[in-house]
Specification:
The structure is a single chain. The strands form three sheets. Strands 1-2-9-6 form a four-stranded antiparallel β-sheet. A four-stranded antiparallel β-sheet has the order 7-8-3-11, with no helix packed on it. The radius of gyration is 17 Å and the shape is globular. The protein has a single domain, classed as Thiol:disulfide interchange protein DsbD, N-terminal domain (Immunoglobulin-like, Sandwich), CATH 2.60.40. About 20% of the residues lie in helices and about 40% in strands. By secondary structure, it is an alpha+beta fold. The relative contact order is 0.23. The protein has three helices and twelve strands.
Amino acid sequence: MTKRQIIGFWVTVAASLGAQAAGLSGLISTPHASPIPPPELAFSWQRPAADVIEVQIADQVYLYDAKTHFSINHATVAVERPEGTLLDDPLFGLTPVHRGQATFKLSETAGPVLIEYQGCADVGFCYPPMQVELSFSR
């Protein structure tokens, strides 16, 4: 876990505890009150074709390009990636990220694709590394 992730985690915990103590826990728990969407809403992955992977990225959230990896049967798959925008990250320096929507084209299509990825919210919270597996059927 990076320093930024640890700090983001503790800031979130402190904000939640402070809100509970102030009697505002209902505001924190509602999806519209938090600028940090849960992972399943922050990154919505789809496989509309055998060789295409799409991700819809929530507003005020970004996906690290360098931390997004694809594999089939434990073998890394070459991917044609969209051009990311450069972000001056305090930990990684200038690094490409994706916002909004990104489409990846796979060089191989046989079998389920395991996607390992990581991203952050603009407020400074970073999600832990995550995985999703996508299949395609005609």
